[in-house]
Amino acid sequence: PYFYVDDLNGKYKSIYNEPLKKIYTTASGDVIEERKKYGRSFESNIRFVQRYLIDRVPVPFPKRNLRLCFIDIETDDSLNTNLTPKPLTCVSFYDSYSKKYAVFVWQDGLNGIIEKSEEINIYKFDNELHMISNILKFIQAIDPDLLIGFNTDFDLGYLINRAKRLQLYPNIISPMNYTKIDRWGVKVYGRVVFDMKKGYRTNFNDKNLGIYNLDNIAKHVLGRGKKEIGITPGEL
């Protein structure tokens, strides 16, 4: 059994390209106690059976250009993903294959209007039901490997439950025709759902950050916060 810890002279590299050294233990049960001696460890949570399979039973995995789909929703200031009392007003996507944005909006009298450019396609509908129906078909059509966003568990959860509320069938966004929402987050079977907010909090656990919102994390990582527009999504 072994794991990795920070070491400026280490010959191994972390996923952040930082130098590491390997720490061996006599028994698998010793890993838990041994890792407590170090401030940070890598791969110390891998069970011995899994470690053996990883090291001794190689499985070919061809390199693939994964298709990423970034998602962001706007709704009128509602935080209830279960009841979804407020309609979705706008849903935006970015597709890593086409390198284009797709924006879905609705307002009375807009049905069937599409605006296209090199960077963005805007799809306009005259009611929310038509908009969400086309959103579900869009995800199904581009068939992404990963659905990614900031607070994606909220966004996808709201989209799925809002679709159900409108008597639509959201499971079509899953290659296995199954979606699930529980306290661990949103699962779209056959696709990876990655919530960047949850990922940042899990991997960095920055106590100096305070609130884990987009503005704070952007300032911490990028040196600048998000751009405020001064109106609510409903007003927009």
Automatic annotation (TrEMBL):
Signal peptide as annotated in the record: none
Gene Ontology process terms (BP): DNA-templated DNA replication
Pfam families noted in UniProt: DNA_pol_B_exo1 (PF03104)
DNA-directed DNA polymerase family B exonuclease domain location: 115-215
GO MF annotation, one: DNA-directed DNA polymerase activity
InterPro entries, alphabetized: DNA-dir_DNA_pol_B_exonuc, DNA_pol_type-B, RNaseH-like_sf, RNaseH_sf
Alphabetical list of Gene3D superfamilies matching this protein: Ribonuclease H-like superfamily/Ribonuclease H
The protein's name in its UniProt record: DNA-directed DNA polymerase family B exonuclease domain-containing protein
Organism: marine sediment metagenome
